[in-house]
Amino acid sequence: MNDPIANLLGNWSAELNIYTVLLRVSISVVLSALIGWERSIKRHSAGLRTFILVCMSTTLAIMIELYLSTHFSVQMFLLSGASIIAIAIIAANSVIFSSRNQMKGLTTSIALWSTGILGLAIGSGLYTLTLICFVALMVCIIVMPAWEVYLKNRSNHFEVHLELTDHRYLKDFVSTIRKLGLIIDDIEMNPAYAKSGLSVYSIAISISNEQLRKYKTHDEIIKALATLKYVYHIEEITL
């Protein structure tokens, strides 16, 4: 496959030499730093250095394998495969569940894994593919969240973290929910708050009322429920 950017740079950019090594490592650092910077400013655990190290390691792995395949006819791409698997394991272990049953760090973990694959493309000299994938990745993590929030806020199903001042008020809360035209799909008590003096639940809710479905968002429904005197705190659980 002819790479348009490689064609513009010249034949040297498609080969593996000291200049392409410097070029590919530089591209790896710059692009991964931009992704890491976006994660850092949003206060995610994996930041600038983590993304740079991940991308550089996969870029280095694929360049080593390209060198071995060219000079020693080694066709087994073990380093790149092992590096992606290692990144996937690290990313999976960075996802945590909070005491409110919220999943934290999932997007950052996937972005970390994607950056590793981006490093493989850079190290392979696929400059155009790298640019396209980098832009797509940045759109996903910068532009898409706002659209995702809008869609979730308009969906017919959502889950809330509910804190009641006393467990006896759960029956009253359920009655209020039903009067509003909502259906409770599931209620789960949260044991993490057992000694807090509060009764804490994770509640899955569906919107059954047609008018409510059209004109009310999750935020508006939750704000209305928060005004109940026995509700200490309520918020939507987001992934």
At a glance:
By secondary structure, the chain is an alpha+beta fold. It has helices spanning 4-9, 18-41, 48-71, 78-93, 106-123, 127-153, 170-179, 210-215, 218-226, and strands spanning 96-97, 103-104, 157-164, 182-189, 199-207, 231-236. It has two domains: 4-149, no CATH class; 157-236, 2-Layer Sandwich (Alpha-Beta Plaits).
Could you characterize the architecture of this molecule?
With 239 residues, this protein is of the alpha+beta class. It folds into 2 domains: 4-149, no CATH class; 157-236, Alpha-Beta Plaits, CATH 3.30.70.260. 59% of the residues lie in helices and 15% in strands. The chain is built from 9 helices and 6 strands. It has helices at residues 4-9, 18-41, 48-71, 78-93, 106-123, 127-153, 170-179, 210-215, 218-226; strands at 96-97, 103-104, 157-164, 182-189, 199-207, 231-236. The protein has a 4-stranded antiparallel sheet with strand order 4-5-3-6. A two-stranded antiparallel sheet has the order 1-2. Strand 1 (96-97) and strand 2 form a beta hairpin. The longest helix has 27 residues, at 127-153.
